[in-house]
Write a structure and sequence with these properties.
The complex is a heterotetramer, with two copies of chain A (366 residues) and two copies of chain C (346 residues).
Chain A lengths: L37 H26 L13 H9 L6 E3 L5 H6 L4 H4 L1 H4 L8 H4 L11 H14 L6 E6 L6 H13 L3 E7 L2 E2 L2 E2 L20 E5 L3 H16 L5 E6 L18 H8 L3 H11 L5 H23 L19 H19 L1
Parallel strand pairs in A: 1-2, 2-3, 3-7, 6-7
Antiparallel strand pairs in A: 4-5
Chain C lengths: L19 E4 H15 L3 E5 L15 H5 L4 E3 L4 H14 L2 E5 L10 H8 L2 H4 L9 E6 L14 H5 L5 E3 L4 H13 L4 E6 L6 E4 L14 E4 L4 E5 L3 H15 L3 E5 L2 E3 L3 H11 L2 E8 L4 H13 L8 E5 L10 H4 L3 H9 L7
Parallel strand pairs in C: 2-3, 2-4, 4-5, 5-7, 6-7, 10-11, 10-13, 13-14
Antiparallel strand pairs in C: 1-8, 6-12, 9-11
Classes of the chains: A alpha/beta (366), C alpha/beta (346).
The complex binds thiamine diphosphate (2 copies) and magnesium ion (2 copies).
Organism (chains A, B): Actinacidiphila guanduensis
InterPro entries (chains A, B): Alpha-ketoacid_DH_E1_comp, DH_E1, PdhA/BkdA, THDP-binding
Cofactor (chains A, B): thiamine diphosphate
Amino acid sequence: MTVLDTPAWRPRTDAAPLMPDPEPFRLLGTPEAARLDPALLGELYGQLVRGRRYNRQATALTRQGRLAVYPSSTGQEACEVAAALALGAQDWLFPSYRDTLAVVARGVDPVEALTLLRGDWHTGYDPRATRVAPLSTPLSTQLPHAVGLAHAARVSGDDVVALAMVGDGGTSEGDFHEALNFAAVWHAPVVFLVQNNGFAISVPLAKQTAAPSLAHKAVGYGMPGRLVDGNDVAAVHQVLTEAVARARAGGGPTLVEAITYRVEAHTNADDATRYRTDDEVAAWQAHDPIALLERELAGRGLLDDALRQRAADEAEALAADLRTRMQEEPRLDPAELFAHVYAEPTQQLREQEAMLRAELEAEQQS
Amino acid sequence: MTVLDTPAWRPRTDAAPLMPDPEPFRLLGTPEAARLDPALLGELYGQLVRGRRYNRQATALTRQGRLAVYPSSTGQEACEVAAALALGAQDWLFPSYRDTLAVVARGVDPVEALTLLRGDWHTGYDPRATRVAPLSTPLSTQLPHAVGLAHAARVSGDDVVALAMVGDGGTSEGDFHEALNFAAVWHAPVVFLVQNNGFAISVPLAKQTAAPSLAHKAVGYGMPGRLVDGNDVAAVHQVLTEAVARARAGGGPTLVEAITYRVEAHTNADDATRYRTDDEVAAWQAHDPIALLERELAGRGLLDDALRQRAADEAEALAADLRTRMQEEPRLDPAELFAHVYAEPTQQLREQEAMLRAELEAEQQS
Amino acid sequence: MSAATPGVAARPAPAPAPPKPTTMAQALNQALRDAMAADRSVHVMGEDVGTLGGVFRITDGLAAEFGEDRCTDTPLAEAGILGTAVGMAMYGLRPVVEMQFDAFAYPAFEQLVSHVARMRNRTRGALPLPLTIRIPFGGGIGGVEHHSDSSEAYYLHTPGLHVVTPATVEDAYGLLRAAIASDDPVVFMEPKRLYWSKADWSAQEPAQVPPIGRAVVRRTGRSATLVTYGPSVPVCLEAAEAAKEEGWDLGVVDLRSLVPFDEETVAAAVRATGRAVVVHESSGFGGAGAEIAARITERCFHHLSAPVLRVAGFDIPYPPPMLERHHLPGVDRILDAVGRLQWEEA
Amino acid sequence: MSAATPGVAARPAPAPAPPKPTTMAQALNQALRDAMAADRSVHVMGEDVGTLGGVFRITDGLAAEFGEDRCTDTPLAEAGILGTAVGMAMYGLRPVVEMQFDAFAYPAFEQLVSHVARMRNRTRGALPLPLTIRIPFGGGIGGVEHHSDSSEAYYLHTPGLHVVTPATVEDAYGLLRAAIASDDPVVFMEPKRLYWSKADWSAQEPAQVPPIGRAVVRRTGRSATLVTYGPSVPVCLEAAEAAKEEGWDLGVVDLRSLVPFDEETVAAAVRATGRAVVVHESSGFGGAGAEIAARITERCFHHLSAPVLRVAGFDIPYPPPMLERHHLPGVDRILDAVGRLQWEEA
Ligand SMILES: Cc1ncc(C[n+]2csc(CCOP(=O)(O)OP(=O)(O)O)c2C)c(N)n1
Ligand SMILES: Cc1ncc(C[n+]2csc(CCOP(=O)(O)OP(=O)(O)O)c2C)c(N)n1
Ligand SMILES: [Mg+2]
Ligand SMILES: [Mg+2]
């Protein structure tokens, strides 16, 4: 008998099935794409076009001073849309600060989704009602939330999966590690979607990790890792749908890395020319998620004028609605600052509120 | 041209060479052991025996109230000793709170190594002079320090490797993740030694991780992972020596998981019967690191009375010295509390020191 | 059943038991047990809280009684513990998190400050977090470095958190029940050197739950008022006893709750004497005592015969075991401060 | 050459330049550049500090001038950044860490409190950590959640750290040079809304390095004293100007350093007027103002005609951009507080 037969050392999980295929999974343009449901492709197409338009409109709103800031997901719409569509109504989405589009694609009111970035409050929608967590500004901190929620649902016997989104940069945070580890140990029904868009603000992936891929991190937690072409909306949708189904069936968490590209600057406040070339951007634009899908649709004779038109109309309607409603000044009540700190305001908060009210009255009178 | 030919996606490191062999590396009792240098085996043997005695003496000192607490490394001496011996004089050791023995094996005065646990100060030795960082109580926090120091040495052109020790429980902390990632990205000359002793206080490994092994985490950072029988001192020594050499040669960091067992309770204050069986302990004691080495030495005709006697004598000498010197009351100056907070005490600290001095004088006079 | 619905009591309420000698540790354990029995959404989690029952045995027996899903040994990662607890609370559970020692709560600081304290406010009240974070704090038990911190000042400066700390066996039970019942996050600071303090007591069910935010006058006095909390309460009571020899009649206010802060009780007690000393164990500079002293002064200035003084730990990292007695505010240091309350000018 | 030896200046000191309009951001950039040129052991590190030059451009051009090993874009992990910087400082380098925004320093809290603040003390002086941690702080720039925190109260309550904050272009340069030159860890809080404030100034080499720990009287006054720091200094100066209309002659003390705290300068200024208002942006409860007010009261009690009052941010999470102006202490709120200094009783 050797040391390794002792009770404390047992061969644990087999690593091989957890390892990602180093070649990102793709569907569009491959023979398998032929099996894809035209209705699904049509829906994905509509959502992509709508998403692109939403990004464009939101960016325009920053120029008009209607938004404080907007981190655009232009170029990443395939991931945003697929994440939203992979979930059932009872499931929860945990977006990062860049994922307003996923929130909108999940059905949250587009104006409410922008509350944070407009600056009238921190979160504009009701997370419980929409089953969408607040957009998370501190990177990766939303990941343990997703794990805890999924775990809570599981121990409550409820059929709920959580899908959490994070960027390539966010994978370097300790919270990423702790969340994945808890998820694996607890076998929580959660899917982690890393959008590897090549940059964390100005920092390229090579300064962020030396790993073969971010998906390879999965094996270190004992969960499967999958690598997918993040601009191939059909592929992302399929990989996420499988991961959600696996979680739902009690199969535990999955880590998905989607390789994509942030076509615009980090936010409207950023100058991306300081850290990357126009050529690089152009190369990625040649592999635009909408273009890839259009090519597929066209190849299968599905890209008719009706589809195009419907997509364009829906996108314009969304943008027009957004434009109109964002022109309205938001209803602001400074006294609300004190309303939600606690269930009941403390005596000190009541005094501070009274002081502010007196000031506001004095202001109005002068 | 597909998306994946674009500048941002290049095949990164190949994962295969990073993957640990799922069977822990062993030497003792294998044919390869025949090639091991008898002098090295003799030295390792002496250190193991000395280390076991040191653990026993320190535990005895807790019962006499001479130490506030002692987290024993009994059963883990092979890792402790091998870690110390794998390093050159110019290298740095970053021990966790359980690794007093590694500190002593590296040559630090055994009484100074116990300052923290005796309670007369926090660290008793000079880290710069000994190139041993303070025993780290907050788990895993020493790992980024090791990476930073190794990186600093490298960018300064100095030949210095850092070896950092951590427990299986410590691998769950965010600091573990961040340290390994920085090390890999910076290609820092650092070796991480995880002593997987099966428990974090009462929590067994299965509640800590679902990974195939802790060594498998390496691939997610892009560094090689190695799994070794942590009770096989020759194997641990060889694996660490190779990793140190690799780091020194500019090959970057390595993660080593040594599988071992904490034979005693977590500390003298812990009651291990609450969470594990005597059988489990007994099974591991049958695979004791000293016994394993003795079997090897005996098989090669190297375990003569002289070796045994020398080892026992050295161990007794160490224990006797420790006993004697630990009976002395440590020199304590309460005013020292104010001496090292800053290079220069602030005015407030000077006033507080004056107050304390006045109190002490009043105490003496009464 | 959705976990958001508080569960029905899993067992009948225990018959009121006669008071018997009980330690604070036992009362805390009882509070957890009763809360878990009364409400299925209460979940206990942390390092070693399950099989071991916690390094201080506060969670002893809970895993056996309620199962590992209700009392869970987590992986060793404090940010992960608190972060997952946030998610559980988002789903409607009432997690009770144990941080093993005060200094080991620091890795969870971002989750605490950026999420726990803000989620209700962030979501306009839609997502309250009924979370209790138990943190054993303070020194006096001969702990090595990082085992004796007093971190309450960090928490009380963080809007959105309640911060409470018991000083008696009875309050330990009542305040912990109240904390768990609260729909707001509560940082529950347990004075670890009082874990083994005893009183004749037994739990009443339905629990006598004192509202969070009420200070209590432990002793009325006419000469000066000691304002304190947690581990320093017994020290102040001892000082008040010793002060009689000097001819001082000292009152003692036990804050119990740092946030919300009970200004009325404190101000009334201080106005009655015109002199106050604030006592706590953590470092004085920027400590809780600063807020208390400043606030008393703002409210009671014209009633004060002397400045409000503070007796606190020195402005140094917590000392090693053999030197900690010099750091901790003791009876003599408190009496010295009382002596400096400018009696000649009274 | 070991990195422990400060390097020889890599280039000759620049000839003194004539003062020219300079922003605080430029002065900070110049301070880093000059410190790196003067001492090879100075290393700048953080998120986006290299190629981009930092989101506020404070590190602009440093990577190009000194190389990526001296000005390093790190992975995105604040605990890792500070933790590796600790190791670099252990080896003898002088790391200057940038935290991108105040709230994103929280993940590094454990490294800061448990190691940065304690390493010198832990090792009886053998292992000082000459580390500078730059943290842009405060609001007023329309930042969304987590971009406007004021976290100085957490740091000033942590023994072993120096905490400084400049309010002028000149001090930004001088204090940053002093922080980098210090053998102790310095938390260097940069008032981000003053980044674009301008003055006629140019760096002198050898640097005029003011000692850390000295407050400065920005304006003498006879009626009352405003005690403040960082982003609130210009607001207080404006208030003092406006107060003239009300017939008040207000002094303004700029603390510059919260730790060490310059009691002499503050006490002298307050004694001269007998009235004081402490002003800062962070939440009042348990904020820096509590310590300052308590301390002034302890030292100046019999010189005070009124309690020391505080004007601070409300005890709420930092508001969204559209509401932040209601939170920030402005001229009116300061003058209101001055008006409450019980003038009738003077
Ligand atoms: C904890 C934390 N640190 C720093 C930041 C500042 N910050 C905002 S976005 C960003 C880069 C994020 O990169 P990545 O995770 O790749 O997401 P992406 O922006 O590409 O979507 C940084 C550093 C933050 N929001 N949170
Ligand atoms: C950050 C932190 N959290 C919690 C603790 C309390 N603690 C001390 S030892 C220990 C278990 C450590 O387990 P492991 O890492 O496996 O090391 P071992 O004790 O087995 O050597 C815990 C939880 C700590 N020291 N630091
Ligand atoms: Mg990115
Ligand atoms: Mg262990």
